[in-house]
């Protein structure tokens, strides 16, 4: 069983900027550029970083300045199309009493990073 962290996880809320245009090429699935889900044993975040390769993903865990997982990735440049490539980066902040950020796992699959931070007490 999983549940989303807030009704607007990964999307613009009422008091923020307008919703981005819907991707006309996406036929199904969550339209948000990122999503945070709490499962029985972990907090899981996914983000859309199209064009980024696993070899270009950099991430680190910060337990000194907070309970964060930071990530960055660059889309490769394509000079033949006059494209310098897009740059992405962000952070996932979790409650240190509920989640063990030191055991966080990050993997990038087809331009989508999956960040999994286990709960300190699984099943709660």
TrEMBL record:
Gene3D superfamilies, per database record: 2.60.40.790
InterPro entries to which the protein is assigned, alphabetical: HSP14.7/HSP23.5/HSP23.6-like, HSP20-like_chaperone
Residues covered by region (Disordered): 1-27
Record field: compositional bias (Low complexity): 1-19
Name under which the protein is recorded: 14.7 kDa heat shock protein-like isoform X1
Natural source organism: Camelina sativa
UniProt gene name: LOC104717342
């Amino acid at each position: 069983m999983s549940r989303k962290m807030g009704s607007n996880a990964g999307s613009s809320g009422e008091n923020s900027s307008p919703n981005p245009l819907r991707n006309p090429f996406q036929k199904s699935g969550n339209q948000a550029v990122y999503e945070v889900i709490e499962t029985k044993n972990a907090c899981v975040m996914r983000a859309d970083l199209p064009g980024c390769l696993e070899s270009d993903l950099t991430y680190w865990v910060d337990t000194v300045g907070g309970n964060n997982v930071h990530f960055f990735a660059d889309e490769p440049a394509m000079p033949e199309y006059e494209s310098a490539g897009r740059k992405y980066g962000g952070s996932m902040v979790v409650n240190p009493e509920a989640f063990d950020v030191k055991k966080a796992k990050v993997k990038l699959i087809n331009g989508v990073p999956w960040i999994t931070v286990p709960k300190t007490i699984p099943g709660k």
